[in-house]
Every structure is written in C-alpha cells, then in structure tokens.
Amino acid sequence: MHIFSRSSIVYLALAATLIASAPVSRAQAGAAPSLDKHARKIHKRLAKYPPGTYVNIVLRDGSESAGALSTVHAASFTITNADNNAPETHNYADVAKVQKGREYIGAGSEAEHHVHWVRWGIAGAAVAGAAVAAFEVR
User: Fold this and answer.
1) CA-CA distance, 20 to 133, in Å (whole number)?
2) Annotated domain spans of the chain
3) CA quadruple 7, 10, 16, 22: dihedral, nearest 10
4) Which of 75, 73, 68, 70 is nearest to 92 (CA)?
5) Residues 6+ apart with CB under 8 A from 82
6) What is the distance between the alpha carbons of residues 95 and 41, in angstroms, rounded to a whole number?
7) Distance between CA 92 and CA 90 in Å, rounded?
8) Is the entire prediction scored with pTM above 0.85?
9) What is the pLDDT of residue 94?
C-alpha cells in the first residue's frame, strides 16, 4: 500500500519549488537594499505620496525644506522648493524627518490661532442680558 498517490507527490514537488523560490523573489522586490533602516522608512513614506504632494523635510544637519514632491528614486527624491520653485534632490540618508504638509503660499501664510472676538462678544452679551433679566424679575 502506498502512502502517497501520484497527485499528492506532484503537489508536494510544486509546493517545494514555490517555497524554494520565495526568498529569491522577495529579495528582488526590495526598493533599495543598500539603504539603512531609517532611509528605507523615509523612502517607503515618500513612495506613498503622489507627485505634487506638499511635504516638509527636516534634514540631519538641522536645516528644513518644504515643497511639492516631484520624483521618488531608489536612493533619492526630488522636490520643488516652495520658496524659490527650484528643484532640490535629497538622499534618503540625509533626511531626519518627513511630513506631509499643507500648501505653502509664502512667508506668513501659516495657520494662526485667532481669538474669535465675535463669539466672545455674543456670549458676553447673552450673559449680561440674563443677569439684567434676573435682576429685573426680583
């Protein structure tokens, strides 16, 4: 009596072939094997953004840059600087932090936290009116 039939031997051979080839295909799928862990993380984050996405970049030397993402390559990426519209190419290894940002129009265009005086004025008038009404009712 046979433990394995012909079809089960074929399936086992096919499974062994797939298992043996899996590490090879996974190694070829990597974006840039020469990049360190942090650089691969930056590359992976930027690869998710479509071209034209506004990004804020902090470089390892402490300088900052902001602009629209142009191209993403294996070892570097290019942005169009928001201040002077010049293309800038940065290596992933030189980037400390990258964030998706809001559209930048120019200096002073950042969002500010305003105290909404109209709301406070209406609320104050309502409280004053309630106090006067309460005083008149007595």
Assistant:
1) 85
2) 6-100
3) -100
4) 75
5) 54, 66, 67, 68, 104
6) 10
7) 6
8) no
9) 93
Q: Ramachandran region of residue 85, left (φ > 0), alpha (ψ -120 to 50) or beta? A: left
| pLDDT tens digit sequence for 79-119 | 999 888 899 999 999 999 999 887 655 555 555 555 566 77
Residue pLDDT, tens place only, 63-82: 999 999 999 998 899 999 98
CATH of 6-100, one of 3.20.20.140, 3.40.228.10, 2.30.30.100, 3.40.50.300: 2.30.30.100
At 69, the amino acid letter reads: L
Kindly state the tokens that stand for 99.
């964030």
Q: What is the SS3 assignment for 45?
A: helix
